[in-house]
Specification:
By secondary structure, this protein is mainly α. It contains three helices and two strands.
Amino acid sequence: MGFARAQPILRALLQEGEIGVNGIGHAEVTGVEGARALGFTPTGVAASRGICGPCADYLSGQGITPLTPLR
């Protein structure tokens, strides 16, 4: 897992201390799985759009709090 294949504009948007990850599927799941692969323990997820039902179910099952509204 890495971020090397992402468009340069996306890499440029990362703020200091942020880490990008690649994945297939919805960003909420990709972010959680990417964080875990890097040794982090995610406790909350924020999204730029409403979090869909399946992602909300996934987060709930993982004990992770959605930090933005659900769809």
